[in-house]
Amino acid sequence: WGRRGALAGLGQTRSKEARNYLAGRVAYGDDALQVRMAAVEALAEAGRWQELGARQETLEGLSDLTRDPEYGLRVAVSRALRRLGMSGGIEALEAAAQSLAPQDRPKIQRSIAGLRRQLNAGGSVPALRKQVEELTEKMRKLEAQVDVLEVRAEGPTSS
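Above: the chain sequence. Below: its structure as tokens.
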């Protein structure tokens, strides 16, 4: 339990170093299945906060894991791909659905649908960052306009 919790906490740091470390902990045979599953989900959490290149690397790594021999890991990867929130995850999830048991395919289909909703709603991290930057710029312009209006309202003072 301790190693799984540590890996999950590492993913929450959202740092590039954490993402790199976690990417190295998911390979087949490197660790116990439960630890690898925790590393996969933590990797998605850390990866979704990185710049585009690192997010793309995370997507590629997770996509490769959809063919992992461990069934439980493939299920964890499907959750991780949704969490990562990149459109390329849909293709990887669709491929992953083919390798899972029929009773698990509805879970994957729900993940695909959720990821599509997230992407259509502008819920991806880059889209949200762009929105925040745009709103911040609008706020700065409005504050400048308010300052100009306040100066005009005060008018020339005569002593």
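The two ends are 75 Å apart (CA to CA).
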